[in-house]
Amino acid sequence: MTMAPPILDRLHLLGDETRTRILLLLERSEFTVTELCAALQIPQPTVSRHLGVLANEGWVESRTEGRNRHYRLGDRVDPSGWELWHLVRDGLRDGPVYQADGERARVVLQARRERSTSFFARSAEEWEELRDRLFGPRAWLTPLFALTEPHWVVGDLGAGTGALAASMAPYVARVIGVDRSDEMLATAAGRLAGFENVELRRGDLESLPVEAGTLDLAVMSLVLHYVVDPPDALSEAFRVLAPGGRLVVTDMRSHERGPAYAEEMGHVWPGFALERVSEWMTDAGFTAVSVRPIPPDPAGEGPPLFTATGRKP
Fold it and tell me: What is the pLDDT of residue 310?
C-alpha cells in the first residue's frame, strides 16, 4: 500500500472548516478550550477532538496553568506546511464565519483583560505585599539585570553582605565583590556560597585588589560616603574598568542631619552635592557622566539619594 504524500495529508487536515477556524484564532492569541468554545460556538468535545488532531500533527501545542490548558500555534511544522496554511488562511479569513469568530474572540479576550483589571482593582492597596510574598521583595528590580551581558565581569565595590552580588551573579560571567570589613565579607560568603562565579576580595576602594581593565561594569551602592577620599575611589574604579565599561554609583545627597547622625551611622561624608560628584567623575576620566536625584521613597527614613553613571572611553 503506498503512503500518501505529506502535502495530501496536510490538505486533508486543512480541509476541515473547524480546524481552520481554530488555527485562525490561535494566530491571534492563546486560548483555553472554554474560550475557543465561546468564540467558535462549538461544543467542547468537538473543539477538544480537533485540537487533538492538530496537536498530533504539530500544528498546535499547549501549556498548563492551574486547572486550564492554554493552546497556541505549534513549532513542529516545517516552512512548507506553513506556506500551505497561509494560502488556505488568505482564502478563508474574510468569510462571514471567520469574521464572526474574530468578533467573538475579541469579546473573549476583553473579558480576560477585565478579569485581570478587576483583580488589580481589588488588590491595589495590597499589591506590593502580595507581589513580594509571591515573587520576593526584589522581583520588580530583576528585569533591570537583563541589561547586562552574559560575558560581563562585574565589580561590586563595597559589597557589604553580598545582596547585590547575589542578585547579579545569575546574569553575568563573573562578579568580584570587594569590601574592607572582614565581618561583612564573612556574611557575604555565607550568602554567596551557592554561586561559583562570585569571588570576594578584601580591600579598600581607594586601592582596589583588581587588575586594570578587568571589569565591564562597576557598581558602588551606598558606599562612597564611607570612603575617606571619594575622588581616589572613583579613579580606582576607572582604572579597573575595561574600555567601554561603565560605573554606576548610588549614594546620599547632601543633607542637614548633623554630625550626631554621621557618627551614629559611621559616615565619613554627609552626602554629596550632585555637581561635586559629576566633577569628580569627569576628573577621573569618565565620559557621558550623568548624575540624577532619585525621588525619595516614602517608606525610607534616611537621606535622599542620587544615582550617577559614567563610561570609560
Answer: 98
d(CA 192, CA 187): 9
Which residue, among 40, 33, 72, has the nearest Cα to 55 in the 3D structure?
A: 72
Say whether both 12 and 27 belong to one domain: yes
Question: What domain range is 25 assigned to?
Answer: 6-133
pLDDT at 38 (0 to 100): 93
Is the residue at 1 inside a domain? no
What contacts 278, CB < 8 A, 6 or more positions away?
289, 291, 308
Mean pLDDT of the chain: 88
State the pTM of this model.
0.61
Burial of residue 36 (number of CB atoms within 10 Å: 0-12, 13-18, 19+): buried
Whether residues 201 and 307 fall in one domain: yes
pLDDT digits (tens, 9 = 90+) for 255-286: 777 666 666 667 778 888 999 999 999 999 99
Same domain, 181 and 281: yes
Q: Which amino acid is at 181?
A: S
| CATH number, domain containing residue 14 | 1.10.10.10
**Residue 92 belongs to a domain:** yes
- Same domain as 272, residue 169: yes
- β-bridge pairing 68-73 and 60-65: antiparallel
User: Cβ of 286: how many Cβ atoms within 10 Å?
Assistant: 25
Q: Residues 80, 159: one domain? A: no
* CATH code, domain with 282: 3.40.50.150
Is pLDDT above 80 for 137? Answer: no
